[in-house]
Amino acid sequence: MANVRTAVVVGSGPNGLAAAVRLAGHGVKVTVLEAAESPGGGARTSDLTLPGLLHDVCSAVHPFGVASPYLATLPLAEHGLRWRWPEIDLVHPMADGSAGVLAGDVDRTAAGMGVDADAWRRVFGPLARSFDTLAPEVLGPLLRVPRHPIALARFGLRAGLPATVLAKAFRTPQARALFMGCAAHLFQPLNRPLSASVGVMLVAAGHRHGWPVAEGGSQAITSALVSVLRERGGEIECNAPVGSFADLPAADVTLFDTTPQAAAEILGERLGGRGRRRYRSYKFGPAAFKVDLAVREGVPWTHESARRAGTVHLGGTAGEVAAAEAAVVTGRMPERPFVLVGQQYLADSTRSVEGVHPIWAYAHVPSGYDGDATEVVLDQIEAYAPGFRGRVVAVHATGPTECERYNANYVGGDIGGGANTPLQMVGRPGFVLDPYATGVDGMFLCSASTPPGAGVHGMCGAGAAASALRSLGVDVQPIGRRAD
């Protein structure tokens, strides 16, 4: 036992847990320190409105979770995780009563697109077919030699474009808006280079794996990861905040599921001048204003397909989505912000109580927005679902300040782990050979502020764990789709 290596992971979000699980799988004795009363970070579930009504506190719908090259290597189903799919993945309703609909595979989706059917197949068909080859390349550091250069080049030809340019591949306002709503998950102006990337990945992932939810709420993902970790000998200590280097137990390697700034504060002078400047200059993006609702009999959407969709995007035309996103980045609150609505209960009935259903929604708002956007969110839903307000039984609002108070990684309400500017997308959290290494021996960053960024996919943690293992002299194989 004298030769057993040890690790400390600060933070138990999906990336911290993924890092801990990968380390433990290689025989490292892992302790996870979590400041909150329970593990999970952005993957927690709570009855925010009414007793027994299950709301996802942050992350909710998981195309990257089910498609994650690392999570796919873990026996999560054996530890209680069950993915559940809605009948329709995504609907983007329009003011005239029509809608763009993402419904399963490429052919099924294209069949409802009229004159845009062939264009949709051309843009997304090759990416969907090669998605499992592409995912390990894209969901990792971009500054490296690719293992599958052809697949990556095909992705890059689309993802490198401004979203506003790629949207012009489609002729109908419905197809354009459907894509632009997916691209808006970037939380950045959609006329910049690389702004098509997140939308391309979300659509391709949906066509290959769908947009599922976790049965019982996103907390089930956390619970499964915790169970795997404990099975591998790891431990979790809650109510254990780390504010300084003195709070860290001795270990061979330490990983931080925190913001770069928080890691810089903990490491202090050990980080060095260049490292401190790099971490402290890291930029954060716009915020989310979240509204959780208890709704009797669900939302009465005008477009029938929206009543069967796990996710609904509200933002109007492609141009209106782009204008709203440009506004929030410059600090202006749009009159009609882009709003995402989650209807997870349609795939997972365990979340509802006696005909009352949990509705999850948030609007994109400026960083640190201190107003109350509750009515704006309700108005957006009412515009596409007349009579909706009369069905609302309870409301729970969470603004940017409350988001950051709940999770210190959500700086200014940014739930994405940092601004997706072109530079930060390529060099996150800086232009270095190993984006996970802090520059301090044995210290690594594993949060969503590292590649590939936000999402419950565990790839940031898995990548950081690989760097930590290599520093211990462990031969780490590339992530595959086998049990690790």
What's a quick, concise take on this entry?
This is Phytoene dehydrogenase-related protein. InterPro entries: FAD/NAD-bd_sf. Helices cover 33% and strands 15% of the residues.
Parts with pLDDT < 50 across at least 5 consecutive residues: none
The coarse silhouette is: globular
Structure summary, number of beta strands: 16
Classified by CATH, the class of the largest domain is: Alpha Beta
- Tell me the CATH architecture of the largest domain: Alpha-Beta Complex
Measure the end-to-end span: 23 Å
In terms of structural class, how would the helical and strand content be classed? alpha/beta
Total individual domains = 2
> How big is the Rg?
21 Å
Q: In percent, how much strand structure appears in the residues?
A: 15-25%
- Please give the order of strands in the largest beta sheet: 7-6-12-13-14-11-15
InterPro entries: FAD/NAD-bd_sf (IPR036188)
Organism: Rhodococcus tukisamuensis
Protein name: Phytoene dehydrogenase-related protein
Pfam families: NAD_binding_8
